[in-house]
Specification:
The chain is mostly helical. 80% of the residues lie in helices and 0% in strands.
Length: 391
């Protein structure tokens, strides 16, 4: 492994690039209505673009990371971002829904190359004592994009047209290619991963069960997060400004949660961190089924919920890296794919809850799904004790 000292701007660069990746992935949620109207699709049909992206990411990310395992990391990461930028341009110019769907597949391929390799590079270049904090910093941008990208994209789409939101993604992606090329060390190589490593990882049930906790936890979060705007509208009577203000509070909570998750994982370990976050979510999310209540109480609830929601990634990645050994890039690719699978499953479950029980049931449902995630964590932790690896 390369032993040179990391550039002081490496982690901010990787975080900024992940912000752009997340913006390109989740901005579609805010574009569904104007995009669907323009391309003659219902909002539900337009929403299939998120599913296309999630499925493409889940399939392509681990495959592409494996087949490029012997190539220098800087080249692969830059190539991934070139693909992502091209996909943004193709999306903005797409004449019909089929071309737009194809562009989403290309975007997922580019993102699926960059994000797991960014985590692997950061984990490899920093000492173990700093690893959780560094990983939290790398994923800080992705966290912020999920809570800020949707309202920003929606505002742009309704103000200037949905294509302008995608041109914005392209404008942000282009400087990232230069940043990757100038800040990621040249010739950086680790013990190469191969398709055989991917095959072995996928066939190792205990490892896949550990990775799938990401899907469980994210899925529980997205049962509620996907529909928080209509929930606030129905129960609190909030309009555009009120909903935007609450999303800002959620964003602030996410910022602190991302930082807190890294600190907790470094200090008390991944198991206690992830267990505590599950318990916190189980206690907090049912509160959303008790609305309406005072605005001050709502602000505190949203902040605490967002804090707990976005604190889990550093601990989970620290756990997976400790299990993966030299297969860390493949395992992190599968973990990144699990984020999108969880978002898709959680959104789908939330839609079923609304159809059967109404919006106010979402908080209780999210709490119950988090209880399932806690059981998942407990069982998988017993099945996959930390094993020392020599790289």
């Amino acid at each position: 492994m390369n032993t040179q000292s990391p550039d002081r701007l490496l982690i901010p660069t990787l975080s900024a690039c992940n912000f752009v990746i997340g913006l390109g992935a989740f901005v579609i949620i805010g574009l569904l209505e104007p995009l669907g109207t323009d391309l003659d699709r219902s909002p539900a049909q337009a929403g299939q673009l998120m599913t296309v992206y999630a499925v493409a990411y889940a399939v392509l990310s681990p495959l592409l990371v494996a087949v490029t395992g012997r190539v220098g990391r800087r080249r692969v990461m830059a190539a991934g971002f070139v693909l992502f930028a091209l996909a943004a341009a193709l999306s903005a110019m797409a004449p019909d829904f089929r071309v737009l769907s194809a562009a989403r597949v290309i975007a997922a391929a580019g993102a699926g190359i960059f994000t797991p390799l960014a985590a692997a590079v950061a984990a490899a270049l920093y000492p173990e004592a700093q690893r959780a904090k560094v990983l939290a910093s790398v994923f800080f941008g992705l966290t912020i994009s999920q809570v800020a990208g949707v309202p920003a994209g929606s505002w742009i789409a309704y103000t200037f047209g949905w294509r302008w939101a995608l041109w914005l993604v392209l404008a942000c992606a282009l400087p990232c290619i230069w940043l990757i090329w100038t800040r990621v060390p040249a010739g950086l190589r680790f013990q190469p991963v191969t398709l055989a490593d991917l095959r072995d990882t996928v066939s190792e049930g205990r490892m896949m069960f550990a990775i799938a906790f990401t899907t469980s936890f994210i899925g529980a979060n997205y049962v509620l997060f996907t529909y928080v705007a209509p929930l606030l509208s129905e129960t609190m009577g909030f309009g555009r400004d009120g909903i935007t203000a609450i999303l800002v509070i959620a964003g602030v909570g996410a910022v602190f949660g991302n930082i807190m998750g890294g600190i907790l994982a470094d200090r008390v370990g991944w198991h206690r961190t992830l267990t505590g976050l599950c318990v916190a979510q189980m206690l907090l999310t049912p509160g959303f089924s008790l609305m309406p209540f005072g605005t001050a109480v709502l602000v505190m609830l949203v902040f605490a919920w967002s804090l707990a929601s976005w604190s889990f990634m550093a601990g989970q990645q620290l756990r997976l890296i400790s299990l993966a050994g030299h297969r860390a890039p493949v395992v992190l690719a599968l973990n990144a794919a699990a984020i999108y699978v969880g978002a898709a499953i959680g959104s789908g479950l939330g839609g079923l809850v609304i159809s059967g029980f109404g919006l106010k049931a979402l908080g209780l449902a999210a709490g119950m799904v988090t209880a399932v995630a806690l059981v998942h964590l407990t069982v998988s932790a017993r099945l996959t004790p930390i094993r020392p690896h020599i790289s």
